[in-house]
Amino acid sequence: MTECNSIGFSSLPIVAIISTFLGMVMTIQTSYQLVSPLVPKTIIAGVVRDSVVLELSPTVICIVLAGVVGSRIASELGNMRVSEQIDAFEIMGINTKAYLILPKVIASLIMVPMLIIVSITLSLLGGVIAGEMAGILPADIYIEGLINGFQGFTITVAIVKAVCFAFSISLISCYNGYFVKGGSLEIGKASTRSVVVSCIAILAFDYVITALML
Predict the structure, then answer these.
(1) How many domains does the chain have?
(2) Is the pTM of this model over 0.85?
(3) Of 201, 163, 193, nearest to 78 (Cα)?
């Protein structure tokens, strides 16, 4: 529960801010592209919905979490390794991988999909707000566009992506932090490396899952 609070609830403010503005920007950008009078206004909401659910919320938010959560995990474990706390646990007969790494991985698998659901909701809500504020389309037409042609399978794809991304972030960050050797400089390098590798893994998983499931 401590890791769930650290990974999930601590990341909620930044996820909420980014998600809301993603939805607002996507609505304005889509309306700018679809300027033909032959295109129904409801199409704007449909394009925003599918873009947010399938790609923007899972991928962008998890890349942000790789920087926020991944660097914290790597730094925490790296500091414990350098200060010999992990060695002390092992001397006491504690399985450090099960005690330190497993809770972080499980918490990530639980909380990241929840954050993605929150992100999708707030992004679509941000789209409604932007549509009203910019005079692009009324809220009732926007909501009608969200409902028309909605396929529940897209949510399944988003959750599968979130689970795979969460596993990548947590495992890569734990690995880089757990096996740090040296001092504080190496901890910083391990944190940076974990973020970079996690982002690459997220993009690779994104391609594979999209190719397989869509």
Answers:
(1) 1
(2) yes
(3) 193
